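Appendix B. One record, verbatim.
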Amino acid sequence: MALYIDPASPNAQYIFDVNKSPLFQKDNENYINIVGTNQLNTLKSSLLDIFLSANNVIEPHYHPNAAELVYCISGSVTVSMMNPSTKQFLTYTITPGQVANIPQGWWHYDLANVDNTHFLAIFDAPNPEVILGSDILKFTPANIMAETYCLDENQWEQTIAPVKPSTYIGPYTNCNRKSMSSHYVNHHYQHYPAYQQIPYGPQYQRY
């Protein structure tokens, strides 16, 4: 893992092309680029440059070591996060120039409402850690899930069999289910047109 370096150091880096730093690519319209200390050693923050087409979702996940500011550049993105104190989901739809703040450790996901949606996820950590929902589902032992939640172990294994670890952007290209429609989103969640400030209340995967 790269560490922050003093900007006065002869080895300091001051410029980087995020377009040449892919984190994940589903297809030509749905992909994520990244810059953090691993890419630019004078950074004390980091960001993901995210491009999505309509009804594609950045999968549910959380960041143990970083808060996240989502800034919409083009299109429209719905940001949903679970308040761990109230156990309620807060959902905000933002458009160009608007931001949504996700406190550190909050479970959340992002849905593109239209094609050519482009937004930044900006972190207050140089290399944010991430726990992905797909990894939790895939790697938690089936017998533990069955015992804990009174499930049939075989049915649980069949249910999660299609889940791919580190999905990042869903649904899968070969998914036969209908995409999540804007009708579903608009009628099942409360939307807010602008940013709302929310106070900050094993080894993890790093970007």
